[in-house]
Structures are given as structure tokens and as C-alpha cells.
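Changelog note: in this version the structure field was regenerated for every chain. One regenerated record is shown below for reference.
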Amino acid sequence: MADMQDQDQTRKLWLRGLGWCLCVALWTIALLTLFPAQVGKAVTPEILHFPAAKCLHISAYAFLTVYLKWLPIGRWRWLLLAFLSLHAASTEFGQQFVPGRHGMFSDVLIDHFGLALGLALTWKCWLPRSRGYSFSREPKGNALELSRSPWLAAKRSKLEIHP
């Protein structure tokens, strides 16, 4: 049984990991080539070009951060988040060497806003997991354990009618 779970986790890691790597590769190509910028200028009106481009930056990095939630890698997720942070800075630096593109520090900040948005959307998976603690107010366990719990005894005493 445990062996099947390990195989399932490994399969998920490979498939989802390759999907994430493909998304990062496509986004890197889009940032370091001129074609996507030309398409954006051709498709969007002049007044919307700048906001659309920045919304795309935010959305792409938020998506890549949210995608990390589906990777079965536990604490290593933080390492990939750090990679995305470095990716944001390095692609803007690399744009300086692409004719027709220019890297800007403000774009790095916008990219990090996308990372923060992705973290906000998936905040629960980034918290450390502790055993036995729940954010709910009611205890968890089987019926026998609950019947002996001090929490239930306190609830019973509140419900009892005293003359």
C-alpha cells in the first residue's frame, strides 16, 4: 500500500513538475524574445498596452506561484519560490541584451507583487504543518476519546440545567 502511494507521489511530481518547468520555460522565452512584445503592441490599443503588459507579468508570476501548491514537494516549495524571485530579476536583466526590449527594476517589483498574490491565494500550503493542532475550535478524534475530553465535559456542564 505504501509502495503504491510512493509511486503515485513520484508520478505526480514528474507530471506536475514537468508542467511547471514547461510553464517557466515558455514564460522565460516570452520575456527574452521580441515577438510577444510585438504581438502585444499589435493586439492591444496604445492606451492599454502598458497596463495589459503589467497585468500579464502579475498574472504569470501569480500563476507560477499557485502552481507550486500542486507539486508534492513539501518544504522544498520555498526553494522554488526563491527560484521564481531570482527568475524575475534575471529575466529583466537579460532583456537589456535583447534588441527592442528593455529591463526595468519596476518590472521586478511588479513580478514580486505577482509572487505575493500567488502566496496570498495559497497561504495555507506555505504554513508549517504541526500534528494535533487544528484551527477549528472543536477537537478531533474518535467518539471514545471525545467522550472523555475536557472540552466536551465543559460543553456538557454548560448545557446542564441546575435547579
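Spot check on this record: The helical segments are 2-32, 35-43, 46-67, 77-94, 105-121, 123-126, 143-147, 150-159. The chain has a mean pLDDT of 84.
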